[in-house]
Structures are given as C-alpha cells and as structure tokens.
Amino acid sequence: MNYTFQFGEVLKHSPELMRASLTTLEIAFAAFWGGCLLGIAGAMGKVYGNKAVVLVVRIYVGFFTNTPSLIQIFVLFYALPDYGIMMSPLTASIIGLTLNAGAYLTEIMRAGVISVRRNEMEAAEALGMSGLQSFWYVILPHIARTIYAPLSNMFIWLVLGSSIAGLFGVSELTGTAIDIGASTFRTIEVFLIAGGIYVMLTVVASVTLYLVGLWCFRVRARIF
Amino acid sequence: MPSFIRSIRATFVAAATFVAVIAGSGVASVDARSLDEIIKSGTIRIGVLPNSPPQSALGETNEIEGFDVDVGKKIADTLGVKPDFVMTEIAQRVPFLVSDRIDISLGGLTRTPERAKLIAYTVPLHTESMAVLTTDKVQAKSWKELNDEKYTLVLIRGVWTVDFLKENLPKAKILLVDTMADVTRSIAQGRADALVENIDFYMAFTKNYPDVKWRVIPEVINTHYDGIGVAQNNDALVRYLNIVLYDLHTGGFVEDTWEKWFKAPMTVKIVPNPYF
What we know:
Chain A contains 9 helices and no strands. Chain A is mostly helical. The A-B interface holds A 1-5, 78, 81-82, 86, 89, 166-169, 171, 175, 178-179, 181-185, 187-188, 192, 195-196, 199, 203, 206-207, 210, 220, 222, 224 and B 3-4, 7-8, 10-12, 15, 18-19, 22-23, 26-27, 29-32, 91, 94-95, 98-99, 114-115, 117-118, 157-160, 162-163, 175-178, 182, 185, 189-191, 231-234.
C-alpha cells in the first residue's frame, strides 16, 4: 500500500501557481502598507491623542488583536452584504488583513513613538520645525530604526497569513493549490510545491527587507 | 559569510530536509489498517463531513448525526467495533485515506476515475443527481442557459463539479467558497446566481434565508454513484464492505435511512447486485 509521489501532473499547473503567488504578494503588500498607515495613526493617537481618541484606539486594537482574522474577514464578506455593503473576496480579504495588521502595528509603532526622547523633540522645536516637520524628520526616522525588525516580521506574517483569503474564493497560492489538488487529487504534492513557493517568497522578502534595513536605516534586522 | 546568507542557507536546508522526509515517507509506505487490524483495535475511523446536514452535522445534543453517521454506526455494528467519526472537509476526504488518518470515507464520495487512481471504492452506497438551485431572479429554464457571463455559479472549493462546470458552462463565472452554508448564503445575498450540484445536500441551508424565493430547475442533469472510500489495495476491507452494503440495500436500511434524513426518496435508486 505504497503512496507513490507523482509531481508531473502538478507541475503542469506551475503557471497557475506562479500567477497565484503574485496575488499572494498583492494581498500582503496592500495589507502591509494599509496596516502601516493605520498603525502609525493608531500609535500617534494612543500617545498624543485626547482621552476619546485613546479609547477609540484601545477598542480597535482590543477587538482586532483578540479575534482571529478569519472571523474578521468572514464578517466583512458575509455579514455586511445584509446591510447593503458588498465587497469582492479580494477586497474583503485585503481590508480584513489590513485592519488586523493595523491593530498589531499600532502596538509595535507605539513602542517606536515612545522611544523618541523628549530632548529630540525639544531640539526639533528649537530649530523651528512645525509639528508635521518634526514628525517627518525626527519621529518617523527614529521609529523606523526602532521597529524595523518587528515590521519586517509583520510583512512575512502577512505573506503567509494571506492564505486565509483562499477560504473566501480568492485564487491566491493556497486557494489555487486546493483547486489543483481537487482536480489532480495529488494534494500532498501540490501542497509541498506551494510550501516551497512560500519559502521562496519569504526568503526573497526577508533578504530584500534585510538589505533595505541595512542601507536605509543601518539596522541589521534578524528576521529568520 | 554575512549572517543573513547563513540564515537563508539554513532556511533552504530546513525546507529541503522537510521535503525529503515527506517524500521519503511516501516511498516507505503509509500502510492502511487491514480488516483484521481494525477488528482487533475495536475501533473503525470513519471520515464524515463536519457541517453537511442531512449527511452529517452536529445535532441538538452536540453529537454528530445524519445519514452518513447512521450508516457508519451500522457498519461498525456489523464489525463488532466502535465507530470513531473523524471530521474531514470535502477536500480532505481522499488525502485522509491516502495518509491513513481514516479507515473509510463517507461524505458523498463520488466515484471518479481520477480518485480511483488513489483510493478504492466499495459498491455504491447512494446516488447523487445533479440539478440547479437558484432564486426567482434567474429566469433560466434549463441548466444549459446558465452558460452566460452574466451568471456566477457558486461551488465549494474541492468538489469535482468545478471541472465539470468549466467544461460544460465555460462562459459562466465561478465563485469558490468554503462550506455548504457559504454556498447558499452567496446565492441569497446576490453574490452568486445559482448552484449546479447535488442540491439535496444544500436544501437544509436555504431555511436560513426564508425571505429568498428559492427555485429548483426541475431537470436532472446527470447521476453519479457514491461508494465508500477505502485506501488503495485494502482489498479485504472492500470485499467485506461490499457484502455489508448488499445486505443494507436489500434489507431496506439504506433507503429508509435516506428518507429519514432527506425527507424524500433517493432520486435515482441503487439496484443491489449480489455479484461484485
């Protein structure tokens, strides 16, 4: 009763897997940048906002860090249409992962924001910088150096976490692997290949992030 | 050597080792449990769908129940062992047999030549008749009329019908979702227009949307036969189950149990044959 591995049938579907990999990256990039914007807004709100803003940020972070992203996307995709809001599977997945990443990044970035020393801000003020200039030239570079490694990890997590979109009909890497497995019945082989592609994607992303961190921020991000 | 190069090398070595171990385990067989081993163990592991009423789903007492569950219990009784129901999603039915996670698979396992290359089947347990479930918003009178880009057909990811529809209704768009509940929800919310499948299994979920005017196109597209899935070359178990199934069909157990759960006779009945 030997199970004989046969990769030939699955390898015929390589172009589909490659196209799906691009969708995986599309979801990861969109959710990452959206999450970064939410994260920085949330962090600034939590550190510098009034009580109402702090409460709103706390509720947001509390909800999204204490529920699985599967449930968040499910609500966006299946519950909102009953209230007249219909999204495509890809849009719901990206928004869900963005909100989820934003909540985690709020906490990560808050650590970066509070690491900015008071005398740095005083120096910026003494130089006559406006609030926006202080943020752009002082706070943001400081935060970037402080939180670069966890930020990189978040991107890798999103590359892998985007597989959840497959459950909502998005043909990203995992969803496409399920489809190919269902039509060829070579499920083990197709998932081994998909796993290999995920390794390639995360290695390339990790190396890129390492080099960007080294050249732009002089940070040696240990992201493996 | 920079640290990140060492890290990459380590990652690739780990990945390659993982693949080698998995592939190696394929060469060194995953042996399915024989009939003797199942009887000696006192338990038979039966794969059933976790959320697919009336085939199998958690009932009011939070116990798994349904047509497949009754059949599974009956098979366990004849063997003199206890049934151990293992939840297998649609796409997991064949892999779970191949990797010896279950001894037999129920869950509406349609016989197809592709699957038969990987697993063995018993004689048919029941039939599946394909039809169209839609709403009053769709005016089509025949399933062939759904071959239009204005229609979106919804299916569960992992069913063989995906390829059937791509071949026979190539112009229609296809939406793949995760569960039967998601299928009917997609149609009710207007995300999809119709389901072309064995609709008997989906009707229970339409009750979640009583305001939707559900419509079944009265046309049987085709009929397929569902056997019990068994690991490839587990011949003694297949032979045993064939005998049991012949008795269950001729004794009326299968038909009675079907009507008990589906509230209607099987559309195309199984004709038991003593020669197999």
